[in-house]
Amino acid sequence: MSEPDPFAALLLRLRKEAGRTQERHAEAINAVSGRETLTRREISRYEKFETVPTDHTLEHIAVACGIPFEDLRREAQAARARRKGRDRDEEEQNDVNRRRLLGGAAIGVSAAAEPWGRLAFALDKGSKIDTPSTNALVERAAELHVRELNLSARQLQSTVESHLDAITQALPRAGENERALTIAAGETAALAGWLAWDLGQHDKAGAYYKVTSRCADAAGYPPLRALALTYASYGTMAPKKKLELLSQATQDVRGRGNAAAAAWVFGRHAEERAALGDGTGALRALERAHVAYDFADHASEQSWVRFITPYRMDSLSLSVYGQLGRFELTAMADTAVDRLGKGLSASGVVVLGDLSAALLRGGDVDRGVHVARQFVAASQAKPNTMGRQRARAVAHNLPEQERELVHHLRQFAA
């Protein structure tokens, strides 16, 4: 049996050192490119030397594997020359270059078995490489937070974890881009944690949130820790612990450029105060949330606050008023319905869930059941990562005679 071509062997080695199957490797490269075009079959063909990737694809492979594109492109050129039987002297020189790359391209992240573990390992290494693709990785991380509004956790989880893997490959050698890439890594890890939590993978979610906080510390960027803490507050069972997490988060979002994040954190604080029956504390926190939102621009601040739309602020208010049984609930419900209008956005699905739960808690059962049915239909048409949580809350508050609707909601939330 003939020996494998050195370039094909290099591609195989890079994939294995990243700890990926061919399918996950294709996903990681697609995560970098932002296009779902590469398949496991193509990876197999590269590794069997049936074909050589184009330079365009090589750029994405280089970023996904954390090595310089020019080195990989040079090796690809040599491989193409071998396929065409080009000059042997040039090939000998390329052999020298190849051996140098093979000796220095070890990534070592396979020491950790899970994406959050590989990210933690990368944060520890401290070595650097200057990659021109940092901006593409950062922009892709931001895009994933926007996609979260329109896709379910199950649809998005693999893509998010693959992108985190791609950032992790580049992070140890990020050079002057290290801080930007560390922040993007933390944002992606936080989103991965949120998706894991939504899917019931609570230990996995906690591990992602911890490494997000490590990224915040490494980058000196407190709002990133606030993101992890606020996400974690949804999954923490102890009410006191929830408030501790959110209190720290409020400290982390102080300062300019964090108004939308502050509105979210204070809104969550209000929800948890209301859950404890602390009406004064809840209303005070809700007021602070709305004041912060008056200064917010959710479309131009951090990528992860894109979901803090006026719809989402309605949702937070409904949740608080419903839990407290406040008289403002009826007027707030009318405002929310008017804002939703005929064209239901992804954020609007969340509002329907909170509106239904709030009406049911507030005693307006008939209207609450009606909105619950709207929520079920909207969640099926426009899945997102908050639908399951809302489905559980609505099912918990429905009257006993609505067994069929309760069963449907619990199936959706499972």
Q: If you had to describe this structure to a student in words, what would you say it looks like?
A:
- The chain has 414 residues and is mostly helical.
- Among the domains are: 102 residues, 434 Repressor (Amino-terminal Domain), CATH 1.10.260; 110 residues, no CATH class.
- It is 73% helix and 0% strand.
- It is built from 21 helices and no strands.
- The radius of gyration is 25 Å and the shape is elongated.
- It starts with 5 loop residues before the first helix and ends with a helix.
- About 5% of the residues have low confidence.
- Mean pLDDT over all positions: 81
- End-to-end separation in angstroms reads 51 Å
Shape: elongated
Largest sheet: none
H/E topology pattern: HHHHHHHHHHHHHHHHHHHHH
Helix fraction, binned, reads over 70%
Range of strand content: under 5%
Query: How many strand segments?
Result: 0
Secondary structure class reads mainly alpha
Structure annotation, total helices: 21
Task: Report the uncertain regions.
Answer: 98-113, 126-131
Report the radius of gyration as a whole number of Å.
25 Å
Which key terms come to mind for this protein?
414 residues; mainly alpha; 434 Repressor (Amino-terminal Domain); 73% helix; elongated
Outline of the structure:
The protein is built from 21 helices and no strands. By secondary structure, the protein is mostly helical.
List the helices and strands and how they pair.
Layout lengths: L5 H12 L4 H12 L6 H8 L7 H11 L3 H15 L4 H17 L10 H11 L8 H14 L5 H18 L7 H21 L3 H18 L2 H14 L3 H14 L6 H17 L3 H16 L15 H15 L3 H13 L5 H17 L2 H17 L5 H11 L5 H11 L1
Helix pairs in contact: 2-3, 2-4, 2-9, 4-5, 5-6, 7-9, 7-11, 8-9, 8-10, 9-10, 10-11, 10-12, 11-12, 12-13, 13-14, 14-15, 14-16, 15-16, 16-17, 16-18, 17-18, 18-19, 18-20, 20-21
